[in-house]
């Protein structure tokens, strides 16, 4: 069986790795740097905590697979510092963890168990959460893909009698199955294959600031009502937030959105994080789709499968396994989270 993967972000490389392990003739097509777009940067948050029990259970499976990857990479891929959730969503997420049978604690803001750079009110502690080491994952996956990672911008994916044709410049190859996981580029490629994927985009910026001496150690990853925060490069704290949609709208352009995000995040740190210095030292930019939510979504048309969603880094090894299987047996994995049937 010959499989083409379109997109060499964390999802595409994870599937490529899983298919190569099964002895499949797979080619991963990446237009730019592998894991250079939405998978850029060196850290992310891992958590079992989600709003839906099915997502909690899937995250637990992904955590076990990260441990397997780590064994093969010879290094831990998640720093086990735990993740804290506070704000309006906390009770719902705690209920979802309880329903999924996942270890967790609900504590008040004075609890000595909390290690945060600022004050929370009541909080949910997810002890299996932590900092995903994207830098290590990138090394592991690029090495695993080897020469099956091809630098190529895919212009079209189209069904033909013999299979699915993947066109890149003046080259056209035919495959038995194609997986589209090209992040912001997915909807353009998928439309030629008869798949209608969401295409709305927004600018997003995550900014890192120095941690002040005396901060608790090691600090938990932290998700508040409208921010997410975690340890980034040594001694720095990364903060991202839901910014006023008018300020980060696609049509407003990237420079204006970056300036507005930088100002808003610096103001937030000044006001709410006494253990963090409001002096930006690094930033990671990406596009995201504000309508997608924290779920996993899949669409198939014949031999072409596509996947999309937000916050996919924490599911990378699980998506690799699920999508490899689906490419081989022609199935479509079930959506999970806010878009799953019955939970919308
Ligand atoms: C700042 C930030 C913070 C985040 N925080 C978290 C977090 O805490 N936890 C978490 O789990 N997730 C988080 N995420 C989300 C997570 O990183 C992304 O969901 C995940 O990396 C997406 O991977 P992907 O492979 O789907 O997309 P991408 O990494 O964008 O990969 C798609 C690839 O396809 C390529 N491509 C596009 N079009 C074509 C084409 N026509 N031909 C060939 N190649 C093409 C692109 O160059 C790109 O490399 C965060 C993301 C960002 C940016």
Q: Mind explaining what this structure looks like?
A:
The chain is of the alpha+beta class and about 350 residues long. It folds into two domains: about 1-40 and about 135-200 and about 295-340, FAD/NAD(P)-binding domain; about 85-125 and about 200-290, D-Amino Acid Oxidase, subunit A, domain 2 (D-Amino Acid Oxidase, Chain A, domain 2), CATH 3.30.9. Helix content is about 30%, strand content about 30%. The strands form four sheets. The chain has an eight-stranded mixed sheet with strand order 6-7-5-15-16-17-14-18, with helices on both faces. The longest helix has 21 residues, at about 55-75. The protein is globular, with a radius of gyration of 20 Å. The model has no long low-confidence stretch (mean pLDDT about 95). It binds flavin-adenine dinucleotide.
Percent range of helical residues: 25-40%
CATH third-tier fold name of the largest domain: FAD/NAD(P)-binding domain
Q: How would you state the average pLDDT, rounded? A: 96
Q: Please state roughly what percent of the residues sit in beta strands, choosing from under 5%, 5-15%, 15-25%, 25-35%, 35-45% or over 45%.
A: 25-35%
What's the arrangement of strands in the largest beta sheet? 6-7-5-15-16-17-14-18
The CATH homologous superfamily of the largest domain is termed FAD/NAD(P)-binding domain
The tally of domains stands at 2
Structural class: alpha+beta
Helix run count: 7
Round the Cα radius of gyration to an integer and report it. 20 Å
* CATH structural architecture of the largest domain: 3-Layer(bba) Sandwich
The distinct ligands, each listed once, are: flavin-adenine dinucleotide
Biggest pleated-sheet summary: 8 strands, mixed
